[in-house]
Every structure is written in structure tokens, then in C-alpha cells.
Specification:
The complex is a heterodimer of chains A (about 270) and B (about 260). By secondary structure, chain A is an all-alpha fold. Chain A has helices spanning about 5-10, 25-45, 50-55, 70, 80-105, 115-130, 130-140, 145-170, 175-185, 190-195, 195-225, 230-240, 245-270. Chain A is extended, with a radius of gyration of 26 Å. The chains are: A mainly alpha (about 270), B alpha/beta (about 260).
């Protein structure tokens, strides 16, 4: 590295090459992408004019003035919001706890054996293929309308997301401490715990903080389909076209989510 | 006693890393293995503790067959064999103590090591291992905060914590500066003398091999081409093992006093 400049200073006598022309492949890919976008826009009825005309929709007048009396009454917003948080916390803690062993089983580096890897991977792929909102609808119907159904749906969602993120982190972990732990004669699971776990644990904490962030937002949406919490309040107000109240609720949620994101960012920066 | 009986190792892809190697190493010997990179030094050590499976032949450690053994049987062989690595292979994000306790994994129930409930006796063994390499004061420091030489000492302590009868060292000083290299080699020599642990070390610096080795084994293209007393070794021997003339790059330093920075 250090001696590179001295090499360059040597008069080599070679002619400086011309900048190579744009590759045909690059042009074709760009053109293909553009054509696909235009086609998709036509098919989906995309209209730039809507961005102007939408503002004349009388719906917007219903957002203002915000009904602060409603929003600031704790029974209307704060209490359901606390419930939303409780759903998010329970789902994050249980989901992330379950994800810990499952992630180690689903990493090429740490899986105890090939069959375990294949089975766990297939099951997780199936779970992840279910849209989380659909999962919520099904579970709320199957378990019960309200917070519990929502919490179960989010637990499964947390598990799926974290296993995906964390198992990939484990895949890219340094295999050498594991080799050292296996060389001492330790069992596979003990060697993984001693040689890999300490190296990936900070990433686990960081990913879990991110999953909590996702869960706070998702728990709002899950309330819309009967999962309890603030989502249920939003859905009820929407049915009565009380957008003045919804806007107030959204502002409160925005502030809280922003604060949580800051905290989760801080945690991630500290541990990574 | 360690016995290699016509051991061959062929990697997937057809590389013959070891060809028909036979040798016997008595208890308490201090053996240095030299050869160019790719000559099979690393494979020889890793075949001995089963990290690399031998393709054919027989390897016995104190009478126990390593080739083809697995599960509890293989773990029992490994438990007696400490290993030190070129790149230390520590879990860098945890304490020195936790790294040394790794050497006790095979002797402690998994639930205990998993939860960190190490028995007092095993902690004591770990402390003694750290004392032996002179870094007990760093016991609760994060491994990544140590210098290279200190990290390698943790690696040695981890191997010692196994209370092994055999110690394997795969290029233990290749990542260290010359001064630290000598200190680590002296540590290994001292441990061999004081504890009588059979020691096998891969080295590529010939002056280190000559200074610390007692028995020298030379590998070339996976074949055993030299096995003898270090006193009988001269530059001609090294030339035959390496298949080329010796260059300054093959030496850590011209002599003990002339230490090249950065090696």
C-alpha cells in the first residue's frame, strides 16, 4: 500500500488509455427499466394531474381543525396507545427470545446438522411468505378480537423478521473462534455459545431494537383489523369520517415513533 | 505418544495435502515442522485433532484412533490436545476469562457453560493458565483490547486450560512482531519443559525453527522429506526441504540483535 505512489512515479512510457465507452449492456438495462416503468404507470392508471386535483377533494377539510379535546382525553388516545405499546413490547420480547435459538439453527455456520437447517429454513420461509396483515386477520379471528390476537400475530412477525436478519449476521461471523472452541473438544452447541455467540450478540441487540421499532408501527396497523390498541380507535373514527380526530392521533403517534426511533438508533450505535 | 501411519489427506477438488506420511512422536517432545506454504504443515496438525479428516491411514494419540472417529469419541481426543492458531481465533468481543474458559468446554456440562455458571475449580484452572503466561491482570479485559502478543498468550492460556497432553501450534508467531515472536516461542518452550506437554509447532521462519526446535520435521508437497535432530540441520537441509535457496524472507531476523521492524 505504502509503496504504490513510488511505483506510479516511475516513467513507464505507457500511453494513458481512453475512458472506455458506455457498455451496450448498461444502456439496454436502463432502457428496459424505463420501458417497464412507463408500461406499469399506464396500466395502473398513474396520472400526474392527480397530484394537483387531489387537493381540491373536500375530504381534506374534514382534517381541520384538529379535535384536541378528543385527542387529549386519555381514555380516547393515551390508554389505547399504551395498549398498543404493550402489544409491541410483549411481541418483541417473546418473538426475539424465540428467534435466538432458531437463528443459530438457520445459519450455515452454526446449524447442528443439515436436516435441522433445511427444516427450520423451510418453515421460516413459509411464515415469512404470509403477509403480516393477513396473519393478523387470521389470528385475530382464530384467537380473539383484541390485544391478544394482535400480540400473537406480531410475535410471529418479530420471529420471522429477526431470524432472517440475525441468521444472516451469524452466517457472516468469523468462523475461527468456533474452530478453536471445537478444537478444545467442546460439544457443538457449547462451542457455538462460547465461540460465536459473543461475537454476534451486539448485532442481536441491535436487530431486536429495530424489530421493536417495526412492531410499534405494525401494532398500530394491526389494530385496524381488530388487533386492539390505538388502531381500533383510528378505525372507529374513520368509519365516522372524523379525520380531525385521526390527524390528532397521527401527530401523537408520529412524535412517539420518532422518539422510539431515536432511542433504538442510540442503542444500535452503542452496541455495534 | 502420537503415531501417524501412512496418513494421506486429499481435499475436495483433488489437492493432495498430505501423502503417505508416517511418523512417531514420543511424549514430551518439542517438534518444529517446516515447509513452504501449501506443503501440508497446517493439514498435518489439523488431521491430528480431526479438524481436517484424514482420507486414509491411521493417526493414534495415546493409542486412540483419530481417523474416522466422531461424536463423543472425537471430543475426548480433542480434549487432550490444545491448539494455538496463527490468528489467535479468540472470541474478541468477550473477556479474556471467557476465552480461557473455552478450554474447559469439554469438561463442564453444556448447561453450565451456556449459562456461564462455571464451577469454581474450572475458574481456578483458567486463572492458573493465565498466570502461567503472565497476563492474569487482564482476566476481565475484553479480548479485542489486547495487543497481538497478549492475544496469543490468551490463546496459549486457553489451550493450557484444557490441561492437555499435546499442544499444537499452527504458525503461532506469523502475525506477531519479532520481539513478541521470541517471547511467545519462549513461553511455548517453557511450557513444554515445565509441564512435559508434547508440542508440535508449524513455523516458516527457519532461524526460529533452529533456535527453539529440538526435532525438525520437513514437509514438501505433502510428503515427509526430513525428520531428524535439529543439531544435524544446516542450510543445505533447509534448501532440500524448500526446494530452493534460502532467502532473507525465510528468516525472522539475521540474528537475535538485528531485529527488522515489521518482520
Amino acid at each position: 500500500m505504502a509503496d504504490a505512489p513510488s511505483d506510479a512515479a516511475e516513467p513507464s512510457g505507457a500511453v494513458r488509455p481512453r475512458k472506455p465507452p458506455l457498455q451496450l449492456r448498461t444502456i439496454l438495462i436502463a432502457a428496459g427499466l424505463a420501458a417497464a416503468t412507463v408500461h406499469a404507470a399506464r396500466q395502473s392508471g398513474w396520472e400526474w394531474g392527480s397530484f394537483v386535483s387531489v387537493w381540491s377533494n373536500p375530504l381534506w377539510e374534514r382534517f381541520w381543525p384538529i379535535d384536541w379535546d378528543f385527542v387529549l382525553d386519555r381514555r380516547n388516545v393515551l390508554d389505547p396507545l399504551v395498549e398498543t405499546f404493550q402489544i409491541a413490547i410483549v411481541a418483541t420480547v417473546i418473538g426475539c427470545a424465540l428467534a435466538l435459538p432458531v437463528s443459530f439453527m438457520m445459519s450455515q455456520l452454526t446449524t447442528p446438522n443439515r436436516p435441522t437447517y433445511i427444516v427450520v429454513r423451510s418453515v421460516m420461509n413459509v411464515i415469512r411468505a404470509i403477509p403480516d396483515l393477513l396473519l393478523a386477520v387470521i389470528l385475530v379471528a382464530a384467537v380473539s378480537i383484541g390485544a391478544f390476537g394482535g400480540a400473537i400475530a406480531l410475535t410471529v412477525f418479530s420471529l420471522a423478521v429477526l431470524v432472517k436478519l440475525f441468521s444472516e449476521t451469524i452466517d457472516s461471523a468469523d468462523p475461527r473462534p468456533l474452530e478453536a472452541a471445537l478444537a478444545t473438544g467442546g460439544r457443538h452447541s457449547a462451542a457455538v455459545r462460547a465461540g460465536v455467540f459473543p461475537e454476534v450478540f451486539p448485532a442481536y441487540v441491535a436487530h431486536s431494537a429495530y424489530v421493536f421499532e417495526l412492531n410499534v408501527r405494525a401494532s398500530v396497523v394491526i389494530g385496524l383489523v381488530g388487533g386492539g390498541g390505538i388502531g381500533r380507535v383510528i378505525e372507529a373514527q374513520r368509519q365516522f369520517f372524523r379525520y380531525d380526530r385521526i390527524l390528532g392521533i397521527l401527530i401523537v403517534i408520529f412524535v412517539i415513533v420518532a422518539v422510539i426511533e431515536q432511542i433504538s438508533d442510540y442503542i444500535r450505535r452503542r452496541v455495534l | 505418544m502420537i503415531e501417524f501411519d501412512s496418513v494421506s489427506v486429499t481435499y475436495r477438488g483433488g489437492v493432495h495435502a498430505l501423502r503417505d506420511v508416517s511418523l512417531t512422536i514420543d511424549d514430551g517432545e518439542f517438534v518444529v515442522i517446516v515447509g513452504l506454504s501449501g506443503a501440508g504443515k497446517s493439514t498435518l496438525l489439523r488431521a491430528l485433532n480431526g479438524l481436517v479428516p484424514a482420507t486414509s491411514g491411521s493417526i493414534r494419540v495415546d493409542g486412540t484412533e483419530v481417523v474416522g472417529s466422531k461424536g463423543a469419541e472425537l471430543r475426548n481426543v480433542r480434549r487432550k490436545i490444545g491448539m494455538i492458531f496463527q490468528t489467535f481465533n479468540l472470541a474478541t468481543r468477550t473477556t479474556v476469562m471467557n476465552n480461557v474458559l473455552m478450554g474447559r468446554l469439554a469438561s463442564v456440562p453444556t448447561w453450565r457453560s451456556t449459562l456461564g455458571f462455571w464451577p469454581a475449580a474450572d475458574r481456578e484452572i483458567a486463572f492458573e493458565a493465565l498466570e502461567r503466561v503472565g497476563i492474569v491482570d487482564k482476566a476481565y479485559v475484553r479480548a479485542s483490547n489486547l495487543s497481538g502478543g497478549q492475544q496469543q498468550r490468551v490463546g496459549i492460556a486457553r489451550a493450557l486450560a484444557q490441561q492437555p497432553s499435546v499442544m499444537l501450534a499452527d504458525e503461532p508467531v506469523a502475525a506477531l512482531d519479532p520481539v513478541t515472536s521470541h517471547q511467545v516461542m519462549e513461553d511455548l518452550q517453557r511450557i513444554n519443559r515445565e509441564l512435559g506437554i508434547t508440542t508440535l509447532i508449524n513455523l516458516h521462519f527457519l532461524d526460529l525453527a533452529r533456535r527453539y526446535g529440538r526435532r525438525l520435521i520437513g514437509l514438501r508437497d505433502g510428503e515427509l522429506v526430513f525428520d531428524g535432530d535439529i543439531a544435524d540441520v544446516d542450510d543445505e537441509t533447509f534448501r532440500e526441504i524448500y526446494g530452493r535457496a534460502i532467502t532473507p524472507d525465510d528468516l525472522l531476523a539475521m540474528d537475535g540483535s538485528d531485529v527488522r521492524p515489521g518482520g
